[in-house]
C-alpha cells in the first residue's frame, strides 16, 4: 500500500495557509496604520506647543539683539566713558617725530 | 391604474425638485460654500518676513527691528463703547470720534486701532483690562544710534495698503531687498483649533529681508556729526553738510547734514528734511571748482605749474568784468599762485587756454551734469547748459565755479578722482548685501573712467597742498600734515542775480596727500559770522581731519 499523499493533495495543504498569512499581514498593517494615524492626528497639540516655543525663543533673541545694540551704541559708550573719568583726547605725541619736550639735550 | 401613475408622477416630480436643489447647492453655490467651509476647518496665516538690518562697517546695527504690537478692537465683546473709546484714545493720543466710528460700524468683528505700539504702552493698555481690546504682534524699526545718519538711512513708513515701505535714503533705494518675501501657512485644524498633521499642510516659509553692510564708519560719522553741529552754532549757518569718502573705493565713510530729522518721529518734521542734500541739493561750487579746471589745463598741457599770468586788474569778458575775490591784484603769478590766491582772472586765463570744447569735455569726464549712480534714493542732477549755448561768459564763469551747479556728491567724487590717480569712482554707500542664510553679495568698487593721468594727479595734488599751506586757510591747518585742499566761497543766485551778502562757504580736500585715506567736502550755507570759506568751512574741515588723523593713527610725515 502506498501511504504517501498525492502531489495535488500536498499542494492543496500548502496553498491553503497562504491566504491566512496574507490576511494576517494586511490586518497587522491596517491596525498599525490606525495606531500611527491616531497618534499623528492627536499630535497637533505638541506641534502647537513647539511652534509657540520657537516663536518665544525668536522673540527673546530679537530682544537680546536689541539690548546688545543699545548697550554698544556710541552714545552709551561715550556716556559710560565720561562716567569712568575718560576725557577727550587733546594732542597726541607721535614717537616718530621730535618730542615736544627737551629730551635731546646736548 | 390612474392612482399608480399619479404616485409615479409625484415621485418623479419630487426627484426633479431634489436634483434641482442639489444642483443649486453643489454647482451654482458650490465654490462659495466650499470656501466658507474651508474657513472653519482651515487655519490660514500670512507669515510676515523680518525686515533686513542696516549695519555699519564694523557690523554694528544702525537700523534694526524690535517687537511692537498692533492694538485692535473686537466690537462684539465691547460692553461700553464710549468708555472704551475714551480710555483708549487717552493713552494712545487718538481722535475719540474716529475710534467710536470704527467700533460702532455694523457687522464689524475686528477693527484696527493703532500700529507699532511698544511693549510699555501695551502693558499700560493691558492694565486697563478693557473687554474687546486685543493685540497682535508686529515689528518696528529701532535705531540704536538714535538719529545718526538719518538722511542717509531714510525711514520706514506705510504704503497705501498699510504695509511697511522704505522711503528716501537706503530704506527707499533698497526697499525690495530689505523687505523680504512674505510666506503663508495653511493648516487643517480640528474642533479645538489644533493642527491635524495628517490633513492639508501647506507652508511657504517667509524669506526675511537682506541685511545691508555699509562703508559707513560709526566713529567717523559720530565725529562728523559732532563737529558739524558745533560749526553750525559757531558760524551761525542756516544749513551745513559734510561728506567723507574713500577715494580709492568710492565708499562713503560718513555723511551728515543739518537740518535733519529723527527717523522714529519722521512725521513730526518738515518733509523738506527727508531729502538728503548730499544727492538732492544743488549749489554753485565756487573756487573749489578751480581744482578741476586747473587739473584739466595741466592734463591737456595748455598750462603748466610754472606758466605765468599777469593779474593786473579785472578781466573783461564780453560786457562783464571778472574781479578777484578781494579786488586785490598781484601782478605776474604762476599757476601755483593762481590756485593759492584763488585768482578768478587767473582761472579765466586757464579756461580760455583750454577752450570751450575741451573745458566742456572735462566737465563731462568729471561727471558734472550726470548722476553719480550712488545707491541712495532721490539723486538729482543739475543739467549743464548745452555746449552750443555757451558764450564767452559761460566759459569764464565756469572756470571759477560760478554759473554752474553741482550736487555735493558730484563735487566730492570729482575731487576724489584727483586723489585717486585720476580715476573717477562710482560712490557707494552699501558694501555688502547679506541674505538670511548668510550668503554675502559684495558690491565691488566701480571705476567709471580715467579723467586725468596719474602724473597730472600728482601735480595738482602738490598745487593743492601748496594752496592749503600758503593760502587763506593756513592758520586752521593741523601742523605737520600734508593736506591737499581748496577753499570756496560762492555767491548764491537769487532771482536772476547774485545776492550781495549771502554765500555758500565750502572746503574740499583729501589727506594724507601722498596716500589719501579720505576725501572730504564741508559746506556751510549762509554762515553769519563770516561769508568766507577760509574762515568757516575750512576750519570745520581741519577740525574733522585732525580727529580722523587720530582715529586712523596717521602721524605727520
UniProtKB/TrEMBL annotation, chain A:
It comes from Candidatus Gottesmanbacteria bacterium GW2011_GWA1_43_11. Keywords: Membrane, Transmembrane, Transmembrane helix. This is Cell division protein FtsL. The lineage of its organism: Bacteria, Candidatus Gottesmaniibacteriota. The chain crosses the membrane at residues 20-41.
TrEMBL record, chain B:
SUPFAM superfamilies: beta-lactamase/transpeptidase-like, Penicillin binding protein dimerisation domain. One of its GO terms (cellular component) is plasma membrane. This is Peptidoglycan glycosyltransferase. Residues 48-194 form the Penicillin-binding protein dimerisation domain. Its main location: membrane. It is found in: Membrane. One of its GO terms (molecular function) is penicillin binding. The chain crosses the membrane at residues 7-25. Keywords: Membrane, Transferase, Transmembrane, Transmembrane helix. GO terms for biological process: cell wall organization. Residues 240-544 form the Penicillin-binding protein transpeptidase domain.
Amino acid at each position: 500500500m502506498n501511504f504517501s499523499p498525492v502531489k495535488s493533495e500536498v499542494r492543496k495543504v500548502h496553498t491553503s495557509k497562504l491566504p491566512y498569512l496574507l490576511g494576517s499581514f494586511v490586518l497587522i498593517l491596517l491596525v498599525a496604520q490606525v495606531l500611527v494615524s491616531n497618534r499623528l492626528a492627536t499630535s497637533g497639540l505638541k506641534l502647537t506647543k513647539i511652534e509657540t516655543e520657537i516663536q518665544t525663543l525668536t522673540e527673546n533673541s530679537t530682544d537680546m539683539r536689541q539690548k546688545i545694540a543699545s548697550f554698544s551704541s556710541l552714545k552709551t559708550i561715550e556716556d559710560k566713558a565720561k562716567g569712568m573719568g575718560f576725557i577727550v583726547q587733546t594732542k597726541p605725541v607721535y614717537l616718530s617725530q621730535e618730542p615736544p619736550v627737551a629730551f635731546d639735550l646736548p | 391604474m390612474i392612482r399608480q401613475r399619479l404616485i409615479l408622477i409625484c415621485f418623479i416630480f419630487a426627484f426633479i425638485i431634489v436634483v434641482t436643489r442639489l444642483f443649486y447647492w453643489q454647482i451654482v453655490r458650490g465654490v462659495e460654500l466650499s470656501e466658507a467651509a474651508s474657513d472653519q476647518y482651515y487655519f490660514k496665516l500670512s507669515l510676515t518676513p523680518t525686515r533686513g538690518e542696516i549695519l555699519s562697517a564694523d557690523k554694528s546695527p544702525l537700523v534694526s527691528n524690535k517687537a511692537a504690537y498692533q492694538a485692535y478692537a473686537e466690537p462684539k465683546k465691547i460692553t461700553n463703547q464710549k468708555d472704551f473709546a475714551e480710555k483708549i484714545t487717552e493713552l494712545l493720543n487718538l481722535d475719540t470720534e474716529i475710534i467710536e466710528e470704527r467700533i460702532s460700524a455694523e457687522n464689524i468683528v475686528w477693527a484696527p486701532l493703532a500700529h507699532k505700539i511698544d511693549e510699555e504702552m501695551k502693558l499700560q493698555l493691558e492694565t486697563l483690562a478693557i473687554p474687546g481690546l486685543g493685540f497682535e504682534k508686529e515689528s518696528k524699526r529701532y535705531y540704536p544710534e538714535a538719529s545718526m545718519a538719518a538722511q542717509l538711512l531714510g525711514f520706514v513708513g506705510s504704503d497705501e495698503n498699510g504695509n511697511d515701505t522704505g522711503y528716501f535714503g537706503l530704506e527707499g533705494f533698497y526697499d525690495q531687498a530689505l523687505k523680504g518675501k512674505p510666506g503663508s501657512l495653511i493648516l487643517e485644524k480640528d474642533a479645538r483649533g489644533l493642527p491635524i498633521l495628517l490633513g492639508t499642510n501647506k507652508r511657504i516659509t517667509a524669506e526675511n529681508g537682506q541685511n545691508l553692510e555699509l562703508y559707513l564708519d560709526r566713529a567717523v560719522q559720530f565725529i562728523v556729526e559732532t563737529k558739524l553741529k558745533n560749526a553750525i552754532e559757531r558760524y551761525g549757518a542756516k544749513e551745513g553738510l559734510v561728506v567723507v569718502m574713500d577715494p580709492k573705493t568710492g565708499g562713503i565713510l560718513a555723511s551728515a547734514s543739518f537740518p535733519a530729522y529723527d527717523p522714529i518721529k519722521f512725521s513730526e518734521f518738515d518733509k523738506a528734511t527727508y531729502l538728503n542734500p548730499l544727492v538732492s541739493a544743488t549749489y554753485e561750487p565756487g573756487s573749489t571748482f578751480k581744482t578741476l579746471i586747473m587739473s584739466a589745463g595741466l592734463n591737456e598741457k595748455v598750462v603748466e605749474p610754472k606758466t605765468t599770468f599777469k593779474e593786473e586788474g579785472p578781466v573783461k569778458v564780453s560786457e562783464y568784468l571778472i574781479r578777484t575775490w578781494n579786488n586785490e591784484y598781484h601782478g605776474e603769478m604762476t599757476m601755483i599762485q593762481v590756485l593759492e590766491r584763488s585768482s578768478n582772472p587767473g582761472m579765466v586765463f586757464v579756461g580760455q587756454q583750454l577752450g570751450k570744447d575741451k573745458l566742456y569735455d572735462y566737465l563731462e569726464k568729471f561727471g558734472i551734469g550726470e548722476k553719480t549712480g550712488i545707491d541712495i534714493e532721490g539723486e538729482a542732477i543739475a543739467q549743464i547748459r548745452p555746449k552750443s549755448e555757451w558764450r564767452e561768459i559761460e566759459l569764464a564763469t565756469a572756470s571759477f565755479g560760478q554759473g554752474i551747479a553741482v550736487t555735493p556728491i558730484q563735487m566730492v567724487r570729482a575731487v576724489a578722482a584727483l586723489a585717486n590717480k585720476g580715476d573717477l569712482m562710482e560712490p557707494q554707500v552699501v558694501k555688502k548685501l547679506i541674505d538670511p542664510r548668510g550668503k554675502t553679495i559684495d558690491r565691488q568698487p566701480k571705476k567709471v573712467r580715467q579723467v586725468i593721468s596719474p602724473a597730472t594727479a600728482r601735480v595738482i595734488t602738490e598745487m593743492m597742498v601748496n594752496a592749503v599751506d600758503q593760502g587763506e586757510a593756513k592758520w586752521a591747518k593741523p601742523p605737520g600734515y600734508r593736506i591737499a585742499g581748496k577753499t570756496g566761497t560762492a555767491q548764491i543766485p537769487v532771482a536772476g542775480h547774485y545776492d550781495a551778502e549771502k554765500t555758500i562757504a565750502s572746503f574740499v580736500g583729501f589727506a594724507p596727500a601722498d596716500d589719501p585715506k579720505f576725501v572730504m567736502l564741508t559746506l556751510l550755507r549762509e554762515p553769519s559770522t563770516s561769508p568766507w570759506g577760509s574762515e568757516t568751512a575750512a576750519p570745520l574741515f581741519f577740525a574733522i581731519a585732525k580727529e580722523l588723523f587720530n582715529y586712523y593713527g596717521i602721524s605727520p610725515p
